[in-house]
Amino acid sequence: MVASKILFAAGRDYDLTLLEELFDRNNTTVHRVGSGEEALATLCETSFELMLTDLVMPDMDAITLARKARRTRPGLAVFMYTDLPTLALRHEINEAGIERVFDKPLSPKLVRYLLREARKVSERRGAMDSASAKGV
Length: 136
Hints:
This protein has helices at 17-24, 36-45, 62-72, 90-95, 108-133; strands at residues 4-9, 28-33, 50-54, 77-82, 98-103. With 136 residues, the protein is of the alpha/beta class.
């Protein structure tokens, strides 16, 4: 099984605490940060398959974070979750490169989806690394 790394950016700890155990059981490393600035600093130091971010955080919204994060890590998959209506934000969400938007509360079903998506990214990276090593 391919190990995956997911970055959670959430201003409130209780949003993710219950779900982290499910990730741990599935060979997935989860790194949680409490702000957008922490997320950006972490992305500069470490590579992740995907980032899940809350729309609202103390220092910036998910749209701003996604734009900045994709400059640092262009191949990063970015997903957002929110309890706010997103129809008015749809253009900004797409422009920022946020691939999926999920409603709160987060669920075990979402965890399974995120695991599948993170593994797809990880497998693609592994295939690209192999091709590069072979000079393809």
